[in-house]
Amino acid sequence: MFRVxxxxxxxxxxxxxxxxxxxxxxxxxTLRAWHRRYGLxxxxxxxxxxxxxADHDLARLQRMRDLVRGGVLPSDAAxxxxxxxxxxxxxxxxxxxxxxxxxLDGGRCLALLERVLxxxxxxxxxxxxxxxxxxAVEADQSADAARGAAGGCVAxxxxxxxATSTALRRxxxxxxxxxxxxxxxxxxxxxQHTLPVEALGAALVERGVPVRLxxxxxxxxxxxxxxxxxxxxxxxxxxQRRESARTGPPHHPALLLAGPGWTTADGAAPLSSLTHALExxx
Length: 282
Known about the structure:
Elements: H1 7-11, E1 14-15, H2 17-24, H3 28-38, E2 53-54, H4 55-69, H5 74-83, H6 94-102, H7 106-120, H8 122-146, H9 154-176, E3 183-187, H10 195-206, E4 211-215, H11 220-230, E5 234-238, E6 255-258, H12 274-281
């Protein structure tokens, strides 16, 4: 398995201006202008070093970009961003996220999720914000069904799913370009629930572990071919429902089953949580 040897280095991930510009989809000259005019830049460089952007710097720049793209003047957007706290508590952000979901405002959801992810990390954001948000949406759906109005909250669930997936995949992208051995993440054939796998991928990348994410409903033959092609360090196979765990898992010496669809009868005890998965893989 992968072993993270320098926790401090992993926790303090930094990026060059070019990397940040690519992540944000803006020109490096735009970053320099925002830094020069509004003070939205990285911390001062150490002697003999280059300025590098930390996660909290990236979160502020993402917020700046989203406001400008939404039509706010850069000078006004900068005043908003500079006046906002760098860190958002995941649990305290839940009411704001649910308000955005009920307004069907995917952009607001995404901006909030990205700020929480950058400030608190994947595990805290997933356990204390994302999962409670989905539980609240499911509770609204149950209440609607009890009133005979089933389906009224489906659009909100889709907005939340899109924003969560987008935010997690953006954080996974940096580790997916790795060409060496990686952790291969996939869902069983017929399984469409990918968010827990995406959360695991983002959390692994955050810890310096490269990943390859295959996504939903991967046929057994395709998964076997992917294992043969990429020769992963480990394979995580997710099943949300028992029906999607009917196909026997592929052979791999470091295969880990994850999700409530699996039982101990399928092999080793399935991974029980995101934290459990990270303990096994890092």
